[in-house]
Amino acid sequence: MTRKIIRRYLPDAVQMRAHPWLRLFSRWLQHANLWHLNRRSVPGAVAVGLFWAFIPSPTQMLPTAAAAIALRVNLPLALALSWVANPLTMPPMFYFNYRVGTWLLDRPERSFSFELSWDWLTRELGMLWQPLLLGSVVVATCAAALGYCSVHTLWRLHVARAWTHRAEQRRLTRL
């Protein structure tokens, strides 16, 4: 049921390969797992998407797409999950990453106020980047592992339940 709903919103692989901007990359977009929802491509796509969502990058979709293509996991799902980090969720996510980084580095947390200016970015980010980056990598790895394991387990439980249901249906039809 969920697969049918997700499949309805996913782009068609043939249309994507024929898109004028993507024709250059069509050779890399041929693998079936990039477009199908199966037990290998979906958990991997969740892991890739969540990992890159927690890494502070202005172009998170590019490394997400490159990782999804290299690992041959569902590309649209990985790209969609990378948008867990959106303008509304980025501040609390990256602040949490920073706090994890300061805890891991055993540094005191610096208080700062945010300004949207180049001067603030060069001055403050120079002092915050180490705990932010370390915390981001640790949290991203944990989120990716948790997402992969959760989806893989849920997929297996769903398949086992479907098999049990089918076996029960066959048993009832024989009676």
Please tell me about this protein's structure.
The chain is mostly helical and 175 residues long. It is 68% helix and 0% strand. The protein is built from 7 helices and no strands. Helix 3 (41-53) runs antiparallel to helix 4, helix 3 (41-53) packs parallel to helix 5 and helix 6 (90-105) packs across helix 7. It is elongated.
Model regions low in confidence, pLDDT < 50 over at least 5 residues: none
**Tally of helical runs:** 7
> What is the helix/strand order?
HHHHHHH
Percent of residues in helices comes to 55-70%
Rg computed from alpha carbons, rounded to a whole number of angstroms = 21 Å
Shape: elongated
Largest sheet, strands/sense/barrel: none
Sheet/helix structural class: mainly alpha
Summary keywords:
mainly alpha; single chain; elongated; 175 residues; 0% strand
Strand and helix map with partners:
Layout: H1 2-9, H2 13-18, H3 41-53, H4 61-71, H5 75-82, H6 90-105, H7 118-174
In short:
This protein is mainly alpha-helical.
